[in-house]
Amino acid sequence: MRQAYVNKLNSLAQKTAQIKKAGVPKEEIAKILQAEHRALSEQYKLTPQNMLDKIYARNVEKYGDKLGRSIDWLKGQGKSWDQIIESATVSACFTSQLNQ
Q1: What residue segments make up the domains of the chain, in order of their start?
Q2: What sign does the CA torsion over 72, 78, 80, 83 have?
């Protein structure tokens, strides 16, 4: 299941190129991709409740949001629109931390 999630996130990178070619401004691209990333994140969190609780707790602790990095959080970290676009195409790696 995790690999399917990662694959879908990777497909957002391909979508980025298409949107850029269409002349969409970077801020708008970032908002589109971040929304899709968060939707995928929520979809793939249909997982056993004990693991889901760990994921949500980690995300709230680290990002202040159970679904993870939001645009507001990323902008608060000083990220550019290009960095936010890129971050929407990857998953935060936390599986090993949860299994400890």
Answers
A1: 2-98
A2: negative
